[in-house]
Design a protein that fits this description.
homodimer, about 400 residues, alpha/beta, 6-stranded parallel beta sheet, 4-stranded parallel beta sheet, 13 helices, about 40% helix, DNA-binding
DNA sequence: CTGTTAGCGCATTCAT
DNA sequence: ATGAATGCGCTAACAG
């Protein structure tokens, strides 16, 4: 029923090997025979059997792209960009030539699913894997990932990180593109400070993710540099520019099931015991939650309850910032007159917020495309395997000097 | 180097066949031997060879999900939802059991790439394919799609349409979930009419897509029913409730390269020759463009130039509506006091627009999940193979009665 | 440049 | 309930 390579060979009056060579285009074949073969392929409407091909060649044309949440444009943009470099432009015939099959795998942010997808990809003998998004800072999971990736790597799968720090023990076989989340976070808060803000609330992402930690660290670096919210020298209060620290100083080792919480403070602690100038004060002005709109909304309400005198709110990303804006407005306050709000990522909708959102632009498309090229081996890895991608501060209408 | 099923068999002191049976769980195996086999698998860190398995079994565990633009949450939400039903919950071990590999393929709206991906999936002997998004109304492409899908279908691949009308000659083998775009479009415009609007601009999507046509038809149905913008009986002006019509009455058969245009009108035709009451008048109030923000912005400027007296603008979707809002504001007009704006889809950000966007809610997540279940054979196809999914009108702050 | 020969690793008969 | 044998369709040496 199904037509095989042998059928094509018979019709073209050549050997199966020749047909294979024509199809893969890796060996010299006479133009005339190539013609005959291609015609036979068209006549018979032959489609290569991928599994058989992969089995024989011990490699497949699958490339996996792992994302945390494909419904989030942050990932959609990167994944789509990567796919443009991998899928090939198509020759317009729909015949599918040498292009690879770039597939996006949605982990939902779950470590288990991340590992499962990696196994599935390993099973398929994937040619490459692109890992996007913040890594989870759980030692156990990190170890499992390191082991799994090592296996993939020495099965010949190329590993590329995109917008994600490489694993501590990462082999030299991998390339990594990481965003300057810390620098971006720092510049954003510096901007607010320069406007005159002194009490700034921070709606952070899930505590166990590297992205969350880096952005928050940048924020606190800026505060500390300005002498805000930390006592004097403030030594021992975390190591902002040090290497990966599994757990932050707030000791939030376990993932927090609750939507919004900083894990320790009781309710009603407005103007709490911690005097300004202590790290505790900064922690009180920080609320963690998932990277979604609802979290931004609720966290902001909580923040305003804890500290009604904040003059600015920095959100972990633009989506969260949108929720923050809604909460601010629902409390009857105006942006930016009564309170400034800022985001991170500069997703397409951010410029359309009213007022337009001050944020930090990450070149998501460019990074995704570059990761795709790296995965295809079309581009050489950066020196040292790691490239840091700059983040650009975008100052727009949602931030202004505090009133008075 | 790489451990195979035979190695596992040797270590477990059973035959390869037994290992295969344990792994696939389709045949009875004694509990004790199963234990031994599983332990050997763990000890050896064995990972099934997907290609070999697929070759022998003549089917793979790949499921393809085709989307137009993965950076658009419209597709991201559906695709992510489908994947939740396909990827399996994961057993927490990262070992990957019987779950399938759900892969998202980004066509970028290109017919060629759509076909190419289908070929790639056919090559892989995919277990199922989910097609999302509006179809392209090009007879040639439709024929190619029909042929390709027929081949996939009788190679055993399950075909599911999601938010997309089935092909004219669609086999009974496929299931289709289609959104009530026409009904949603009609109710939305009815809402505006009931508020008192009479001159309503329409920013449509690309003319060659079914989604565009259906939404526009619903819009015009409502206008006609209210006696707006069409002369009397208006027969011969398209067949809104008829079956698929390849080309609309505006004869826009070829895709339009320009970002924004209705394909025929010259510039500067404000208050043009067509008297109100003709179809030409409606066409003058309609501008086509891609489904993106920029198009919404530019099309709206064009609309306001052509007809400064419009009191409401309906956009093809929420993203376009956001661009429309920006354009309206940049012209110094307020929403909804000076002009009402409405969208379609109810994407997550729509409720955060200021004012919140009146739109038509499509249950994207639910539809995607159902499509995923259909693709897995977990759910029976709807009677007749086609289910129409209702669209719900969401009235929010961006629409209000016209001034005066 | 082209044909011949062997497997690739597994699922599946058929036996037992 | 388990083992032995066969072939899925293709690529990769190796000849020629």
């Amino acid at each position: 029923m199904t037509v095989t390579l042998a059928d094509v060979a018979a019709r073209a009056r050549v050997s199966p090997a020749t047909v294979s060579r024509v199809l893969n285009g890796n060996y010299p074949v006479a133009a005339s025979t190539r013609e005959r073969v291609l015609r036979a392929v068209d006549d018979l409407d032959y489609v290569l059997n991928g599994p058989a091909s992969s089995l024989a060649a011990a490699t497949s044309d699958l490339v996996g792209i792992l994302v945390n949440d494909i419904a989030d444009p942050f990932f959609g943009i990167m994944a789509g960009a990567a796919q443009t470099q991998i899928g090939g432009p198509g020759d317009g015939s729909g015949r599918a030539g040498g292009e690879k099959l770039a597939v996006i795998c949605n982990t939902g942010g779950s470590p288990e699913r991340e590992l499962t997808y990696l196994t599935l990809l390993q099973r398929q003998r994937a040619a490459a894997v692109v890992l996007t998004g913040g890594a989870i800072e759980d030692p156990e999971h990190q170890a499992a990932m390191t082991a799994k990736l090592a296996k993939l790597a020495d099965a010949g799968t190329r590993i590329v990180f995109c917008g994600r720090p490489p694993l501590p023990e990462g082999d030299a076989l991998v390339a990594a593109l990481t965003f300057d989340n810390r620098g971006g976070g720092r510049r954003l808060t510096e901007h607010l400070i320069s406007l005159g803000h002194r009490r700034i609330g921070y709606v952070a992402g899930p505590p166990e993710r590297t992205t969350t930690r880096h952005r928050l660290e940048g924020h606190r670096e800026a505060l500390r540099a300005a002498g805000i919210g930390f006592a004097g020298g403030a030594e021992g209060a975390g190591t902002p520019e040090g290497p990966a620290v599994p757990d932050g100083p707030d000791g939030s080792g376990a993932p927090e099931p609750a939507a919004v919480s900083d894990g320790s403070e009781g309710p009603g602690g407005l103007h709490g015991p911690d005097g300004p100038g202590s790290l505790g004060e900064q922690e009180r002005l920080t609320v963690h939650g998932p990277y979604d709109r609802r979290s931004g909304y609720e966290a902001t309400l909580e923040l305003l309850r804890r500290a009604p005198d904040v003059t600015a709110i920095v959100a972990a990303n633009d989506t969260v910032a949108l929720g923050a804006c809604a909460a601010v407005r629902d409390q009857g306050m105006r942006i930016p007159q009564d309170i400034s709000v800022a985001g991170f990522d500069d997703l397409p909708f951010s410029v359309d917020a009213v007022p337009a959102l001050t944020t930090v632009r990450l070149p998501l498309f460019e990074a995704g495309a570059r990761a795709g090229r790296l995965a295809m081996g079309k581009e050489n890895p950066p020196p040292g395997g790691i490239a840091t991608i700059a983040a650009e501060l975008m100052i727009r209408g949602s931030t202004a000097p505090p009133r008075g």
